[in-house]
Amino acid sequence: MYQNDAFRALDRQESLRLLAKVPVGRVVYTRQALPAVLPVNFSLDTDTSVLLCTSPDSDLVGAIDGVVVAFEADEFDAATRSGWSVVVTGRATVVTDPAEHERLSRDGPASWMPLAGAAFVRIESEMVTGRELSGTCRNP
Fold first, then answer.
1. Of 19, 22, 11, 132, which is closest to residue 83 (Cα–Cα)?
2. Which of 76, 46, 65, 72 lies closest to 129, judged by CA?
3. Contact between residue 139 and residue 8 where contact means Cβ atoms under 8 Å apart
4. Which Pfam family is an annotated match for this chain, by its short name (predicted)?
5. Residue 101 half-sphere exposure, CB side, CA atoms within 13 Å?
């Protein structure tokens, strides 16, 4: 088996630590029976779930509420050929509890888009995978 020292799998804790360092990721979901990817800003909640803030009327809310989705974020440096990628897979749900909504309005993510109202979406971190590329690999 070929061993590659430039690549390593990240454990859950390290993956979540890296994920918390970046402000933007991508939601991977199904739209009209086809794969869809949407970049979004986000934050991690204290329970390690991914939190999104969007318009209550957005197509995203209707497409992912109650559905298993993937969320991916990464950071790469092309010059050094190094970086990491983390994928969180879990059920997405719209936050409907008034107290929780109020808490997230204070402490949760703020949308980068102007919104008339805010809907918070929680993606449970049921499965977390990560990988890192150190940049030491060169093509022969």
1. 132
2. 72
3. no
4. Pyridox_ox_2
5. 12
pLDDT in tens, the chain (140 residues): 455 667 899 999 999 999 999 999 999 999 989 999 999 999 999 999 999 999 888 889 999 999 999 999 999 999 998 999 999 999 999 999 999 999 998 888 888 877 778 899 999 999 999 999 987 655 54
DSSP-assigned states of every residue in 64-109:
HTTEEEEEEEEEEETTTTEEEEEEEEEEEEE---HHHHHHHHHHS-
For the chain, the residue count is 140
Rounded Cα distance between 97 and 31, Å, is: 26
Residue 120: φ, ψ to 5°:
-105, 135
